[in-house]
Structures are given as structure tokens and as C-alpha cells.
Amino acid sequence: MANRLTQIATRTGDDGSTGLGDGTRVPKDHLRIHALGDVDELNSQLGVLLAEPLPEDVRELLVVIQHELFNLGGELSIPGYTLLKDEAVLRLDEALAHYNATLPRLKEFILPAGTRSAALAHVARTVARRAERMVVALAASDAVAVRPAARQYLNRLSDLMFVLARVLNRANLDGLGGDDVYWKSERLARQG
């Protein structure tokens, strides 16, 4: 890996460029920087979620995911380098299957609401989707390939955050949840 940061304010970005992990400089509005920023924002959003009361197994999973997202960011910052392990996608698949098995089947759309922790999980879900869109855009435009695992990881993670939001509403650790918050469809209400 490249040098560790010893100085934060280097002023080298004052010209509108930033350095990648391999030492090359790109404009700060480069798709790679957008993708990196979205992954960083997602990781930060998980940090906010981790500040909430959570079931211990969910907390442990989110900490692992934070480390994997950091690896993904490192991989995006060094074109052609692999840091995110292929097993990371499998781990998300297993977590999805585990947590989804405990939930009742959805019969209607749900709102991103309920307990504070569930709402924060929904925000993380939307940031994961944005990061995925940006990684897809980067892969389509950059000469250095973005591994499919990066896109797959973000896709699975957004699905997992949806499932975890439902789990967190049922955990009801703040006394404000207990179930999903269902969308009230005007069309369905007129039919009923």
C-alpha cells in the first residue's frame, strides 16, 4: 500500500486535483473520486448507525462491513489493485439469508421509517445504491477495469441494509418501532 498520511492539509489539492493511492493525480470531479466519496460517505453513515443501540450480532456485522468498505475504497483509489476479497460478497449473501429468514414476507411497500436505527439503516441503503451507481459509471468510462466484486458488494450491501432496517424495527431498542412502517397506497385504499 502507498504511504500513510502524516500531514492532512497538504494544499496539493488547491488546484482542483487530488492524488490517487498510486500517486497519479486526477481532477476532483473525476468519476473515480465520486465513487470513492460515495463509498466513504456510506462508511461514515454506518459509523452513525453504529452509535445507536443495536443487537450485538448486527453491530459485529456492521464493523466487518466498515472494514470491507475501507478495502473497497482503497481498491478504487489504486486502479487495478485488489483489496476487497471475493468472500466479502459471499458474507453479505449469507447475512442476507440469515436475517431475511427471520422476517415476515412483505405484502406492501414500506417507508424508510420506524426506529432511529432503522431509519439510519435506510439512509445507508440509499447511499449504497448511489455508490453502486457511481461504481457502475466508473466501470463504464475508465480504461482500468473495476472488478465486478465492487459493484456486487455494494448491490448486496444495499439489500442487506433494507433487511437490517426491518430487523432493527423489530428489535425495537428505542421503544418507537416494533414493525415495518407501511406505505398507504391511495389506489389500494380506494379498492378496499
TrEMBL record:
Superkingdom as given in the UniProt entry: Bacteria
Location of region: Disordered: 1-24
Transmembrane feature ranges: none
Pfam families from the UniProt entry: Cob_adeno_trans
Reaction equation(s) it catalyzes: 2 cob(II)alamin + AH2 + 2 ATP = 2 adenosylcob(III)alamin + 2 triphosphate + A + 2 H(+)
Residues annotated as domain Cobalamin adenosyltransferase-like: 8-167
GO molecular function: corrinoid adenosyltransferase activity
Biased amino acid composition, Polar residues: 1-10
E.C. number: 2.5.1.-
InterPro entries associated with the record: CblAdoTrfase-like, CblAdoTrfase-like_sf, PduO-typ
Keywords from the named record: ATP-binding, Cobalamin biosynthesis, Nucleotide-binding, Transferase
Record NCBIfam families: PduO_Nterm (TIGR00636)
Family: Belongs to the Cob(I)alamin adenosyltransferase family.
Name recorded for this polypeptide: Cobalamin adenosyltransferase
